[in-house]
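Data card: per-record layout.
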Amino acid sequence: MTTALQAGVSGMLAHQTRMDAVGNNIANANTIGFKSSTAEFSDLLNQTIHPATPTTATRGGTNPSTMGSGVTVSSLNTNYAQGTLQDTGRNLDVAIEGNGFLSVTDGSNIFMTRNGSLGIDSDGSLVQLATKLRVLATAPGSSTVTPASTVKVPVGAASLARATSNVTLGGNLDSRIPAGQSQPITATVYDSLGAAHSLSLSLTKSATSNTWTVSGSSPDGAVSVNGSANLTFDATGAPQLSKLPLTLSLTGAGGATSSLNFDLNVGGMTQVAKNASASLASQDGLAPGTLTSVTIRENGEIAGVFSNGLTKSLGQLATATFANTDGLENVGNTLFRASVNSGEAVFNAPGNGSHGALRSGFLEGSNVDLTREFTDMIVTQRGYQANSRVISTSDQMLQELMQIIR
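The structure for this 406-residue chain is written out next.
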């Protein structure tokens, strides 16, 4: 009778634990990056009533008789299956498509998470918005991660300038104009410090058939063509060379490199019997800019976007995998940490090996299956009721026994 009472109590406690797990799963059905858990039962130690006996010459052997003493929750297993990816359109939202965890830190400990809702704090650090923990990243190509491997996003910081190295011309030079007539083209080029300089080019029709002489000037210095200054075309109007090297020797460099050397690309020009349309197509110099935003690429690279069009790598998010993912310890807030049974984290760039790629502008939803959870709720409730009935029935039997004694 006592055993039945103990079994009933243990059954109610076990089913209460299972109901707690189900309730927690349902409560987190809309929690980003949440992983559901399941309670696993096992029976308690059996008591031997009669041991087994061997076979003899005259009598057969007997099987052992044992009596169980109830049930217990042997483990709470986490389901690490991927949740549905939800489109947010936000640059700093990332989801891992496949294996791996993002890593965050409180300054001394490293935690793992599938919640990729990221933001930038007042210090310029990249943080996970749900916990305010700083996100860990590595230098591109590195796999070393420590609690100090955080990344800064200095929005508003100035970028380096870029000196002009290529000026590209396009359009047509009218083959019908007389020798000595010129086609002017103006451009703005940048020195090594990002200062702008006005450049005036002149393409003059030569007396030699299909030949134009290139010259230039600037209020900021002397322009010279390095080598032949002749631009020639064939009988179809296509240029016979692709570029001319030019030098702008600055008279007041102001700390920048005094000689601005660049290529004048002319491979896209034509000389046909058509109205002139020659003009500047592009130049690759950049004035100084400021960091305005960041984007996160599939390989985890954090790219800073500057107002002048320049992009610069600020770091690379590192994802972690484990030899035994089921061995991770759940510490709440959709955070996990390594345990003695999970093995050490293996860090790598997203998309490398078994590490899943990142999807910018997406978040991973909870993997809770509400249909299954409500079904488990009903089954758990019935199990709890059945165990409570065992206790009430055992109580009635004890009462009957007490009445016999009276």
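Known properties of this structure: The chain is about 15% helix and 35% strand. The first strand starts at residue 37 and ends at 43.

See the next section for split statistics.
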